[in-house]
TrEMBL record:
Ranges of residues in domain Baseplate hub protein gp44-like N-terminal: 2-87
Record protein name field: Mu-like prophage tail protein gpP
Domain called Baseplate hub protein gp44/GpP-like C-terminal: residue spans: 252-332
Residues in Baseplate hub protein gp44/GpP-like second domain copies: 89-173
Taxonomic placement: Bacteria, Pseudomonadati, Pseudomonadota, Alphaproteobacteria, Rhodospirillales
Source organism per UniProt: Paramagnetospirillum caucaseum
UniProt superkingdom: Bacteria
Record-linked InterPro entries: Baseplate-like_2-layer_sand, Baseplate_GpP, Gp44/GpP-like_2nd, Gp44/GpP-like_C, GpP-like_N
C-alpha cells in the first residue's frame, strides 16, 4: 500500500503513480503521482506547493521532503490532481549557499557540509565504511554558488558521493553496499531488460593537476599531478583537468581514478524491469548488490543498483525499473593510492 502524507494528512484515491525514483546518481529522490482530491475516509483538504510530504510504501519511507508542484484537472464526474515532490535535499540543488564569510581552514569534509546544510534544516550522515579523509587546509565558497555545487566540489576531492537516503537526510558515502539474495534471472523474474556499452564520455588516460596552495607557497606543489588509465579504451583518448580542491599527489590520483570510474559507469548501463516493488526480503533500493543472469544481455554476476524507478497503472500494475552498474562503480577511492591507477 502506498501512502502520501501531505502536511500531516494522509491521501488515498490513486489513479496512477507516474514515477517514484530514488538513486545514488541523484541528490534528491522524487515522485509524480495522480490522485483524486476527495476520497471516502480521507481528510478533506487541498494540497499546496511547499507542503511537507512523506511518501511511504507499506512501512518504508521512500521520499520525505516537500511538494514542488500541484496540477488540477476536471472532467465529467472526476476531479483529479497531480502532485510532484522531491526529498528535502532538493533545496541543495535549487538554492545558493549564503554563508558568510564562506571560508573554512583545517576543517573536515563532514563538518563543512553540515554547515552548508544547516540553514535548510537538512541532517548529514556519513555512511558506514565511508572515510571522508583528512581535513581541508582551506575551502572557500564561490559567489552565488549553488549549495550542491559546493558540496560536490568538496566530495569530489575526497572520492565521496553525496546522495539522499529517502528520509530527507544527506548521506556522504557510498560506504558498503547491502546485498540482495533474490537473483534476477532472464526468463524467470526479468520482465524486460536492456544494456548499453558506449565509449561516449570515456577516455583512455585521465590526468588531474593539483591546485596551488591557498595557504602557503604558491609554487610548492604546482607540478603535482595524478593519473588513471581506463583499460577498456584502446585508442589514444586523453583528458586532463585541474583538481577540484588543493591536491597533493595522492589526492590528484584519487580524483583521476574517480573520473575514470564514473565515466565507465555512465557508459556501461543496464536497465532491468521487474514486476512488483519488492524482492523476497524488502523493497528494491539503491546501493544494493544483486546477482544477475541475463545471457541475452551478456550479463552474469553481481551488479549494483544505482537507481530504482517505481510506477503503477491499471495496465501494468506495480513495476520497478532497476538501473544497474558494475559493483565498483561508486566505490570510495583508497586514501593511500598514489601515482598511476589502472582498472
Amino acid at each position: 500500500m502506498v501512502t502520501l502524507r501531505v502536511a500531516g494528512v494522509e491521501y488515498g484515491g490513486w489513479t496512477a503513480i507516474n514515477s517514484i525514483r530514488t538513486g545514488m546518481d541523484a541528490i534528491a529522490g522524487g515522485f509524480t503521482i495522480a490522485l483524486t482530491e476527495k476520497w471516502p475516509g480521507a481528510a478533506q483538504r487541498p494540497i499546496h506547493k511547499e507542503d511537507a510530504v512523506e511518501l511511504r510504501i507499506g512501512d518504508d519511507t521512500v521520499i520525505k521532503g516537500h511538494v514542488d508542484e500541484v496540477a488540477r484537472e476536471i472532467s465529467a464526474g472526476t476531479h483529479t490532481i497531480g502532485v510532484t515532490g522531491r526529498d528535502a535535499t532538493a533545496d541543495l540543488v535549487d538554492c545558493s549557499t549564503m554563508l558568510a564569510p564562506g571560508e573554512w581552514k583545517d576543517r573536515g569534509l563532514a563538518d563543512i557540509v553540515r554547515e552548508i546544510c544547516a540553514p535548510f534544516g537538512i541532517a548529514v550522515e556519513v555512511a558506514p565504511g565511508a572515510d571522508p579523509g583528512k581535513a581541508f587546509a582551506g575551502f572557500t565558497l564561490q559567489k552565488g554558488e549553488k549549495s550542491l555545487a559546493a558540496i560536490q566540489r568538496l566530495c569530489a576531492a575526497r572520492g565521496i558521493l553525496p546522495y539522499s537516503d529517502g528520509r530527507g537526510v544527506l548521506v556522504l558515502g557510498p560506504g558498503q553496499p547491502g546485498r540482495i539474495s533474490t537473483r534476477l534471472v532472464e526468463g524467470v523474474n526479468i520482465k524486460a531488460g536492456k544494456a548499453k556499452d558506449s565509449r561516449i564520455g570515456r577516455h583512455r588516460d585521465y590526468t588531474v593537476y593539483s591546485q596551488t596552495n591557498l595557504w602557503g607557497d604558491a609554487n610548492a606543489n604546482a607540478g603535482t599531478k595524478g593519473t588513471a588509465h581506463d583499460a577498456g579504451i584502446r585508442r589514444y583518448r586523453p583528458t586532463a583537468r585541474m583538481a577540484d580542491d588543493l591536491a597533493d599527489g595522492i589526492t590528484a590520483a584519487q580524483q583521476a581514478a574517480w573520473d575514470a570510474k564514473i565515466a565507465k559507469a555512465k557508459a556501461e548501463t543496464v536497465e532491468i524491469t521487474v514486476q512488483g516493488w519488492r524482492h523476497a526480503t524488502g523493497l528494491w533500493r539503491p546501493n544494493r548488490l544483486v546477482p544477475v543472469s541475463a545471457p541475452s544481455l551478456q550479463i552474469e554476476g553481481d551488479r549494483l543498483i544505482a537507481s530504482v524507478e517505481r510506477t503503477l497503472d491499471e495496465q501494468g500494475g506495480t513495476i520497478a525499473r532497476l538501473s544497474l552498474v558494475g559493483p565498483g562503480a561508486f566505490d570510495l577511492l583508497a586514501q593511500k593510492e598514489q601515482g598511476a591507477v589502472t582498472w
